[in-house]
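Protocol check, entry for the methods section draft. Step 1: assemble the input record (protein sequence plus ligand SMILES). Step 2: submit for complex structure prediction. Step 3: store the structure tokens unaltered in the notebook. Ligand used here: adenosine-5'-diphosphate. Step 1 record:
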Amino acid sequence: MKEIILRVENAHVQYGGIQALKGVSVVVGRGEIVTLIGANGAGKTTLLKAIMGIEPLSEGNILYKEKTIFETYSDRSHGKSTPTHLLPGMGLVLVPEGRGIFPELTVRENLEMGAFLQKDKKRIEKNLSEVYQWFPVLRDRSGQRAGYLSGGELQMLAIGRAMMAEPELLLLDEPALGLAPLMVQKIFEIITKLNTEKKLSVLLVEQNARQALRIAHRGYVLETGKLVLAGSGQELLDNPEVKRAYLGG
Ligand SMILES: Nc1ncnc2c1ncn2[C@@H]1O[C@H](COP(=O)(O)OP(=O)(O)O)[C@@H](O)[C@H]1O
Ligand SMILES: [Mg+2]
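Step 3, stored output:
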């Protein structure tokens, strides 16, 4: 691996008495698509929230571009983190589960919210026109309320909004959830294209293991808060345990 863009070390997260993450370590290399697969409740969303500083680690460290953005101390008395709202400005952007779109706002207004840290109006316009090139349907619907979009269009809007922040590493939380098969295909094609053409690094969280492993350079399997397997996308696709548990035999 050339350069590591994200390094999660020994991440523990607790919700009251529930241990949602029990010592998870993950790395993403610059230019890689890395997928984290696991069943509902495995802790996938929790890991992404921890990276974004939304859920604090009770133990562990997170480094982004070689800078510590979250650390805990050996006595576990306290943790220190980079505030969540500053991370997009560093190129670290989350496309949340359920997409986090504001249905009352127009498509364009939702996109502009992705550029909230950007003060340069020209640059916002340039990024907006690039997003419209990637997703022409968003241009066609720019003045409509986002609440009227289909599931697939909403996911494109969520990715487009993330692109407005000029990401280097995109965290995607189940982008295929609830979409029809053709749209699932399309979303995975878009993720691949963002990686190859825009050189975006991607951490992709998915229950849709087959599709995710097909487009990923590497993957991790998370089970009830612990990593149980890691390998290249192809190795995991060929792994008998993965086949049995995640690929339907
Ligand atoms: N805010 C919360 N409060 C309490 N428990 C939570 C909370 N969020 C998630 N959990 C629990 O933590 C575990 C992991 O959840 P989550 O990270 O959402 O899993 P996944 O995204 O893999 O479906 C589950 O047991 C879930 O019920
Ligand atoms: Mg989840």
